[in-house]
Write a structure and sequence with these properties.
Oligomer: single chain
Helix content: over 70%
Number of helices: 6
Shape: elongated
Largest sheet: none
Radius of gyration: 18 Å
Structural class: mainly alpha
Order of helices and strands: HHHHHH
Strand content: under 5%
């Protein structure tokens, strides 16, 4: 069975971003007709994030990942759960308020930032580390070079490198 997570995850990302952009435009430019778009997009993004996290966990348990890749996937899972909770909070907040506040918009923009980082990390896992895909050895750079950005990110988040032997190589 192919991975399920990649088929689902793009919807909560896109709809979460669309919701925040639409809400911001509705307030900034006085276009109240964008509010239903923001309203429903956030609701669907929250529901989709629950499915995406569940599918990601399912796929992680079925994959046979290298230990380095598995650590990145665990970080991706943990941050995905945080974003899922944030999207559910935003959807509940948006549904309970007739007119969203500036605090809601700031929270929404924080979610957009988190979604951008999460999407980047997911791309790194797939395209640099080969997580969830069969190795094709068709990359445009050598594997050590391709993994460098995600290793630096992991070191920054966790305070340590994924692969300690790479410290000697300056990675």
């Amino acid at each position: 069975m192919p991975p399920i997570h990649p088929a689902i995850v793009h919807y909560p990302i896109a709809l979460g971003v669309v919701s925040v952009f639409a809400e911001t435009a509705a307030i900034a430019f006085g276009v109240p007709s964008l509010r239903p778009l923001a309203y429903w997009s956030m609701a669907i993004a929250a529901a989709g994030s629950v499915l995406a996290v569940g599918a990601g966990y399912w796929d992680m348990k079925r994959d046979q990942l290298a230990s380095e890749t598995h650590e990145l996937v665990h970080l991706h899972l943990k941050s995905g759960v945080v974003l899922m909770v944030a999207l559910v909070i935003a959807a509940t907040w948006r549904w309970s308020a007739l007119s969203p506040s500036l605090l809601y918009l700031l929270f929404g923009w924080a979610i957009v930032g988190g979604l951008a980082v999460q999407a980047w990390l997911g791309g790194e896992i797939v395209y640099s580390h080969g997580g969830g895909v069969a190795a094709a050895n068709q990359g445009t750079t050598l594997p050590a070079e391709a993994k460098r950005p995600s290793r630096r990110f992991y070191r920054w988040i966790k305070g340590r490198d994924l692969n300690r032997k790479n410290d000697d190589q300056g990675l």
